[in-house]
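Model it.
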Amino acid sequence: MRIIDWCHASEHLWDAARAAFGANTPLAAMWGERWEAMLWHGKVQAVIDALTAESKRLGAPHEGDGPQHPRRVLAQNVGYFTKHKDHMRYPEYRAKGWPIGSGVTEAAVTQFNKRVKGTEQFWREPTVEPILMLRSYWISQDQRWDHFWANRPAYVN
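Modeled.
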C-alpha cells in the first residue's frame, strides 16, 4: 500500500493556489484552504476537477514558460493529483490508524542511522542486520523486545 505524504500533497495544493490566484493573496489563501479541506475529506477527484478548471482558465503552458510559471505549475499539479489519486484516500487511512505523513518513517530511519552509522561504530555486514532487528524491536514499543528475549533459552526464567 502506497500513501502519498499528506504534507507533500498539501504543499502541491498551496503551490497550485498561489499559481492560480497570485502569491500571498486572500484568494489564494481561500482556495488553498478549500482544496486542502477537500483532499482531507477524500474528495480527490473534486480537487483534480478544480485544478483542471484553473489550468484551463490560464491555458496550456507555453514553450518559454519557466518551471515556476503559473501555467506550468497548474498543469503539473493536475498531472500529480491525477497520477496519485489512488494513494490519497486519507479518510480511509486515518480510519485504519495508518500514518498519512512520512514523519514516522523518517524518525525510524534517523534512529537506525544513528545506531549503524554513529561515531566510533563499525559494524561488519554480517552483524548489521541483527543489530537493526534488535533496534527495531526496541523502538517498536509493542512488546516485541520482551517477546524476543522471553523466548531465548538463556533468558527464560
